[in-house]
Amino acid sequence: MYMRRGNLSAKLLNICVASFCKAKQLVKAEAVIVDGIRLGILPNVVTYNTLVDAYCRFVGLDAAYCVIHRMREAGINPDVITYNSLIAGATKKNLFSKSLDLYEDMHREGISPNIWSYNILMHCYFKLGKPDEANKILHEIIFHNFSPTPVTFNIMINGLCKNGYVDNALMLFRYLHRCRFVPHLETYNILINGLCKSGRLGAVKRIFKDLGESGHKPNAITYNTVMKCCFRSKQYDLGLEIMSQMRSKGYTYDGFAYCTTISALLKTGRIYDANAFMEEMMRNGIELDIASYNTLINLYCKEGNFEAAFGLLDKIEKEGLECDQYTHMIIINGLCKAGKIVEAQRQISRMGFHSNLVASNCLIDGLCRYGQIDRAIELFESMEIKDSITYTSLVHNLCKARRFRYASKLMLACFRSGMKILKCTQRAVLDGLRDSGYRNDARKLQSRIRLAKMLKMLGSKERWVMECGVGHLKLCTIDDCLLQPGFRSSGESYLALLLRPLGVTDPLSCSVNKERALKRCVFMAFRTVMMSKVLHRSSVSGARSMSSWWRSVEPAPKDPILGVTEAFLADPSPDKVNVGVGAYRDDNGKPVVLECVREAERRIAGSLNMEYLPMGGSVKMVEETLKLAYGENSDFIKDKRIAAVQSLSGTGACRLFADFQKRFRPDSQIYIPVPTWANHHNIWRDAQVPQRTFHYYHPESKGLDFAGLMDDVKNAPNGSFFLLHACAHNPTGVDPSEEQWREISYQFKVKDHFAFFDMAYQGFASGDPERDVKSIKIFLEDGHHIGIAQSYAKNMGLYGQRVGCLSVLCEDEKQALAVKSQLQQLARPMYSNPPVHGALVVSTVLGDPDLKKLWLKEVKDMADRIIGMRTALRENLEKLGSPLSWEHITNQIGMFCYSGLTPEQVDRLTNEFHIYMTRNGRISMAGVTTGNVGYLANAIREVTK
């Protein structure tokens, strides 16, 4: 063949080499290169890269390195594609350390990675079980202005799923969806597979539905994965419905799909349908593997068609496949269940399974099932190896035959062997002994069961520090201390020393007259070990003193907000500014006591009362607080449908509700917005309520992520609990509009969700308490039963008095009384009775028309000052010519402004300008004054330009 020399010839050479490489004919590819050189056509970097990739994929790294050596000899340097092939080859061979070394080599040679390098490296980190490192690679991709490809996101989602971070994978998928990224079908399949493996059937169904709405068509992989998940979750009907959809779309079944469906049909007792599927599979000529044959054999055994089952064994042999033990166990089990004991024994003999534990268990169960208990006992006694299933099966059938005393002996033998018997079987033996008049035997058996449990606890494999000899300590296990020699200088264990006077070697087989003494000895050993557990944990370096009770206590992490205040107070700079504290300050930066509060204090001073309040708190304060939230003329208040108690401010109200939720809806979880007040997470965590998050804030727009919020509300399981900020969201200051609140309320109604409102800023947000409660009014109009946490720290300045209220709207008065009584019971072990003074202040202010009018004016003045400072800060930034948009400062509401400043920019503000705030960029507008707003604006401009 004649080739023109030049670029075209090199291209033809590369095409030929690539074709042979794809066909795995590497020898011919090498021959083409040799022929090309003879014709004067020299291979280039593309030629060698093609060879390197092929050798990495089909031969190995060593062969690929030989190609690179030839490449360098030809004066051609490896490029990024060369290294990508090497890294990918090492990763496929699970040589992860080698992959990372190659990546470092590439950097040392001055070769910049491309997006595929990052993709391979990310995949490598996931394979190593280092999802955090993989996530750093994703950030590095963005930092270097690469555009992540769909493959990048597929690797990320797949890696997160396989490393157990399915929720993170789902959140990433949702985030990408909102960023207008159109997922490929493969992306959907990866996520569905990850959700299936974690048993998240609800999420699988939602993603499957989204897939149908996305314009993509599910393929056979999608249907098979979803179907398998349904069957695993015992949702057989749904799985079969998916199977029907798959067939209606014209997809062909493979052997796996047929076998999965047949197994599900067998489990639901639909043998006729399973048989129909089997016939269809045969008609379609599906190539069967051993797993498929096992499924068919199981079907025949269920039908009692053993002739067909044995016929399949012959067919397996003819096709060159090899039966596994599972195949024969299916037949043996089927024969036993059908009462064909002789045939089952013949099969066991034929296969040489005399000592096979599973086969023997099947035979014992079959013998017992058909009344041959004595033969089952003979077989049991002849078995050298037994397990819990062996004991449980025989004991269970002995109970059926009312042979309770023999069953109790077997139970003790089981415990002595260190094995378990099902609790229901234990109860059956004990109840049978009692009903048969053997009450003493039942009592002794129960005592031995308890003793066995205690001995099992003593035999725990955990490591502890135990006393050994005199004057020193050593690390050992409890078994070492109690059951092995070496605990004392005599070489005997502690338990052995205790039991020696009794002459007991086997604690579970001692005579009756020694049982009481034995219990006392075991209890002494048990108590010794428990004391050692408490006082001598090996996780602490060195031995602990008996008197050092709290040496294991580590310092708690510092509160980030209080840490800001401490740093501010320690700073000697005269220019320092604190915009981190969440408490109102006047325009001089001083704390404020409202005039209405001063007047209330004067009135209270004349009639001080230090008696306990009722457990539910001040009735007057609670009544006035409910009017603020539900309305002066609320029908809910008139009908006494609200369960309400005084709480320790808003924090206490949230904690009380979290405990209430945990006690009466123990299987529920709470959805919390991202971000939220940090203490929300602490409250529900300590109440042991599982937490989920939902989207709220959009970092790019610095506004509400309404689409993400609604998406999460729709996707949450029906009847979920959601924490909502009624107004002035902390920390973002971003609130939904009235129309958005209505949409949220509607969707809550559709999904039957419960809304719990945290309302710390009523009146303080806009200056109008009625306006700030609009979100709650919308939910009430739509017929929701809600919960509300209210407090008077911000809007009345009663920070230190800790005055709040928890209310729950109920179905009727009877239900409200029940809920209130339970709330009081929950409060009882925490604080019994709430504080009186702050409650008196609130009830005095709100209960007096003149004082309430004064309060409304003062709270509006506070809100107006905050709003004014927002405007001033924005105007100063715009006047200084800041290149960024600062509209969000005035669009947000309440005490806090979520500035959008990065942690690094906040650090610069602190270090260079002595301005203190939390590292998430939250500015407390209460700390901004006419005296420092210009300085603050200039500093922000400097760190953001």
Describe this structure in words.
The structure is a single chain. It contains 46 helices and 15 strands. By secondary structure, the protein is an alpha/beta fold. Among the domains are: 386-453, no CATH class; 464-535, no CATH class; 560-594 and 859-944, Aspartate Aminotransferase, domain 1 (Alpha-Beta Complex), CATH 3.90.1150.10; 616-857, Aspartate Aminotransferase, domain 2, CATH 3.40.640. Helix 37 (738-751) links the parallel strand 9 (721-725) and strand 10 (754-759). The longest helix is centred in the C-terminal third of the chain and has 31 residues, at 849-879. The model is unreliable at 1-7, 459-495, 500-504 and 529-547 (pLDDT under 50).
Features:
single chain; 945 residues; alpha/beta; Aspartate Aminotransferase, domain 1; seven-stranded mixed β-sheet; two-stranded antiparallel sheet; globular; disordered N terminus; Asp_trans; aminotransferase; Aspartate aminotransferase
Determine the number of helices (DSSP H or I, runs of at least 4 residues).
46
Structural class: alpha/beta
Q: What is the C-alpha radius of gyration, as a whole number of Å?
A: 37 Å
CATH superfamily of the domain at 616-857: Type I PLP-dependent aspartate aminotransferase-like (Major domain)
Q: Beta-sheet strand percentage?
A: 5-15%
Q: What is the terminal separation in angstroms? A: 65 Å
Shape: globular
Architecture of the domain at 616-857, CATH level 2?
Answer: 3-Layer(aba) Sandwich
Taking pLDDT < 50 over at least 5 consecutive residues as the criterion, the unreliable ranges are 1-7, 459-495, 500-504, 529-547
Helix content: 55-70%
Q: Going across the biggest sheet, name each strand in turn.
A: 4-12-11-10-9-5-6
Query: Briefly, what CATH class of the domain at 616-857?
Result: Alpha Beta
* Main β sheet profile: 7 strands, mixed
**Tally of strands:** 15
Average pLDDT rating: 81
Task: Determine the CATH topology of the domain at 616-857.
Answer: Aspartate Aminotransferase, domain 2
PPR repeats: 44-78, 79-113, 114-148, 149-183, 184-218, 219-253, 254-288, 289-323, 356-390
Cofactor: pyridoxal 5'-phosphate
Catalytic activity: L-aspartate + 2-oxoglutarate = oxaloacetate + L-glutamate
GO molecular function, one term: pyridoxal phosphate binding
